[in-house]
Amino acid sequence: MSVDAVLSRISVIRTQIDALRTGTTAAAATSQTAGADTSSAFADAMASATGTGTTGTAATAASASTAPATSVDAGTGTIATGSGATGADVVADAKKYLGVPYVFGGTTTSGMDCSGLVQTVFKDLGVTMPRVVPDQAKMGVEVGSLKDAQPGDLIVPKGEGHVVIYVGDGKVLHAPRPGKDVRIVDNWYKDSDIATIRRIVPAQASATTATSAASGGTDLQTAALLSLMQSGSAA
User: Fold this and answer.
1) pLDDT, tens digit, for every residue of 46-63?
2) Is 32 a catalytic residue?
3) Are the C-beta atoms of residues 109 and 97 closer than 8 Å to each other?
4) Is 0.70 surpassed by the pTM of this model?
5) Cβ contacts of residue 178 below 8 Å, gap of 6+?
């Protein structure tokens, strides 16, 4: 593929992206065949940029906008970075479940318990967590004390009979007990009450990612476009 062809393809893709962002149908001006080819190429580039593999179908591009970049297992003694999720993402996702009733053993919006909530939130973000508190208490890395806790960290009290998500500013989000629903409350635990505080994903994006984003750097769409350009140059 020549450089001119790559640049032309990039122009078409940018037009489609702008159309999606503004709600216009500018991309409809492209022929149906060319649009299908472009969608497939962009899907392949997105898959390459995120490391999810290539399917060559537009369906991949559609799913990329609703699914995590990749799925990883939470580890013991290590932070799960492969999904791209951060502590802020954990808090934001957990807030979607505010008001869900407590149901022992539950993991859905019909009802969930404390560890079911934690497992579901991380699953949403592409991180596989164990189902019960004692196992969840082994995941990630340990945080020394409450003063070092960051949003998205898990607080497990002594006895490991409960788990809460720290949301910052001295507050936690959890599924309390039967008759209650998922809610945010003031943290009532003291360091002396706590068995462990666990950080499963990075507290925030890496400095490299943050700097790149602040300067208009590479996001997933740009990475996909760069992938197209590289494949064009190689051709």
Assistant:
1) 555 444 444 444 443 333
2) no
3) yes
4) no
5) 102, 103, 104
